[in-house]
Design goal:
heterodimer; A: alpha/beta; Rossmann fold; 2 domains; 6 helices; 27% helix; globular; B: 328 residues; alpha/beta; seven-stranded parallel beta sheet; five-stranded parallel beta sheet; 29% strand; elongated
Chain lengths: 260, 328
């Protein structure tokens, strides 16, 4: 089985956020880009499948500028991915995720794939657009919010679960499919030191980013802003629990106007 | 702006989900008085939902009534939404902030050749284009994006816009008939479903009030204090990771980075210290209240109102007070 996992270099979660000098996007200066939550779960899912289906191969694909995309791909190789493809995005630091899906689709058309995995959204922009756009571009079904995907060899279908607001759904479908995975449902492995050292020399196939479709509608970031610092809670003063309750309900009704 | 606004419906047990009602409210709030607002709904039966659109003042509903839509993958549905948007002469499609909606937006963006964004809290017309604001980095920052091109698909964040008041109109429904989507998009099968554990109230992401409990409750047998407070408010019950990791409550109730992100009108944190992992899941709530015995707990930095004290005394008193006020 040929499995492709699409990963995005994302600022590590502890990053101190501030706007770039042009005020448009996060200032990338000094930021360390890593594999994060959703994508870690996607890579782990790819490796679990590979281990359960003999003869499978996993290719990691990433879109992004140097060096962060290569570094993220090397991290995926250190975890156990067999090969890596880097779509060199050049200078654009904050593309429309739908354009990223277009670039991924262009690359995937020339790579064998029975299954395409990605995080259901990225940890930074939280857009969650890539799986759906990629599915439409490749002409295959896609599903987001997926956990625990397996291959049923006897019936040649993938089985997986999906959480909605009120239901846990169980699905089955033959490949090829695009799947957006939830985070934190599997326990992503960590790379061992020898594998990390070896991954530094792993070959990375570099492909150029396709010329953007000039006629496509797209979104672009115009402002990156931090919320004003919170003033901190207004504390309710009270002598008895009953008084605390009464005063809290009163401010919620009269001041915050959230309580009917 | 000249085109119509299409609002994508979603059915649950034959009725429109609350996020769709909010999307109608958003359509009203952002468009001029002359702009047609058109509904779309797909399902085995769309009559009840069509009437609901009419009650909200939407006179024109495009429908795809087909038993296949009971268990259809979203992938197959995008062609119907795109056709409806084209038929209605829309230049903006508003999609509810649900799992269904989140899965639809990217595919529809390609299908309908439109700019596509999700998780939007504010939509504006500026300099001849749609402009949206959306929280990113778990609510630690916001970005503004400009949607270039003639068409836009905007996925809304739950509770970003209020439902509109009822304004009943006569409603006309028209069937949508796109070129049949490729057969492989219909092949995936939903073979089973079971309800997600959610307490007795509304689901976490739908609810306009959420009450969450944390480690401060000390033991699973005390969690009923949170359940009762939530019941008095008609709120959904949530929990911190400490609580779900300890198995006091199912993981489907976890609010936070590795659980659900919620943005209700009112969020009450009971006995939750406020680890960053929890904060990113609830910081976008409109009003945050914290009840905690430790005055230095980080939750008080993000809360709007706080009660420092023994939750075992405060919470029952609060539940009683809310019941009293509500029955008055």
């Amino acid at each position: 089985m040929e499995i492709v996992v699409c990963i995005k270099p994302v600022p590590e979660p502890e990053t101190r956020l501030r706007a770039a000098p042009d005020g448009r996007i996060l200032d990338p200066e000094g930021v360390k880009y890593v594999l994060t939550g959703y994508d870690e779960s996607a890579v782990e899912q790819a490796l679990l499948l590979k281990e359960s289906v003999p003869g499978s191969k996993v290719r990691a694909v990433s879109f992004g500028p140097s060096p962060r995309a290569e570094e993220t791909l090397r991290a995926a190789v250190a975890l156990g991915c067999d090969s890596a493809t880097w779509i060199d995005s050049g200078a654009e630091p904050s593309p429309d995720p739908v354009d990223v899906a277009r670039a991924l689709a262009g690359t995937l058309r020339s790579l064998p794939h029975d299954l395409v995995l990605c995080g259901k959204q990225a940890g930074d922009d939280e857009a969650g657009l890539v799986a759906g756009a990629l599915g439409e571009l490749l002409g295959v079904p896609d599903f987001g919010y997926v956990v625990d995907l397996r291959w049923d060899a006897a019936r040649s279908v993938f089985t997986f679960h999906r959480m909605t607001e009120t239901l846990q759904e169980s699905w089955e479908a033959p490949g090829p499919l695009v799947i957006g995975l939830q985070q934190a449902w599997n326990d992503p492995r960590t790379a061992k030191l020898p594998a990390i050292l070896k991954s530094r020399k792993a070959p990375i196939d570099k492909v150029p980013v396709p010329a953007p479709d000039a006629h496509a509608s797209r979104s672009r970031a115009t402002t990156f802003a931090l919320p004003p610092p919170r003033a901190g809670a207004k504390l309710i003063e009270y002598k008895t629990p009953e008084e605390a309750a009464e005063r809290l309900v009163k401010v919620l009704r009269e001041e915050a106007k959230v309580f009917p | 702006m000249s085109g119509a606004v299409l609002v994508v419906g979603e059915l649950r047990e034959g009725r429109l989900v609350p996020s769709v009602t909010e999307a109608v409210g958003a359509a009203r709030a952002i468009s001029g008085p002359g702009t047609p607002i058109v509904g779309f709904v797909a399902g085995p039966s769309t009559d009840a939902a069509t009437k609901e659109f009419g009650r909200l003042g939407v006179p024109d509903v495009r429908t795809a009534s087909d038993p296949r839509f009971d268990r259809a993958p979203v992938s197959a549905l995008a062609a119907f939404v795109a056709q409806a948007a084209g038929d209605a002469g829309a230049d903006l499609v508003l999609v509810p902030g649900t799992t269904f909606g989140r899965d639809l937006v990217g595919r529809l963006g390609i299908r309908w050749n439109a700019a596509a964004v999700t998780g939007v809290t504010e939509v504006q017309r500026a300099d001849g284009a749609w402009q949206v604001r959306r929280p990113i980095f778990g609510g630690r920052a916001t970005e503004t994006r400009r949607l270039d091109g003639a068409r836009a698909v905007v996925g809304l964040r739950p509770h970003a816009y209020a439902p509109p008041p009822d304004a009943p109109v006569d409603v006309r429904s028209t069937a949508v008939a796109p070129r049949e989507p490729p057969a492989n998009l219909w092949v995936p099968k939903r073979v089973a479903e079971e309800p997600v554990a959610s307490g007795s109230g509304p689901s976490l992401t739908d609810a306009s009030i959420v009450v969450s409990g944390g480690r401060g409750l000390r033991a699973p047998e005390n969690f009923h204090l949170v359940d009762e407070l939530a019941a008095s408010l008609g709120a959904a019950v949530g929990a911190s990771r400490a609580v779900t990791d300890a198995g006091w409550r199912p993981s489907s109730l976890q609010v936070g980075q590795t659980g659900k992100a919620v943005s209700p009108q009112l969020y009450l944190a009971v006995g939750i210290s406020g680890a960053i992992q929890h904060i990113v899941g609830m910081v976008s709530s409109r009003v945050i209240v914290a009840i905690n015995s430790d005055a230095t707990a980080p939750i008080f930095k993000v809360a709007d109102y706080g009660v420092v004290g023994d939750l075992f005394q405060i919470v029952p008193a609060l539940t009683a007070e809310i019941r009293r006020v509500r029955s008055a």
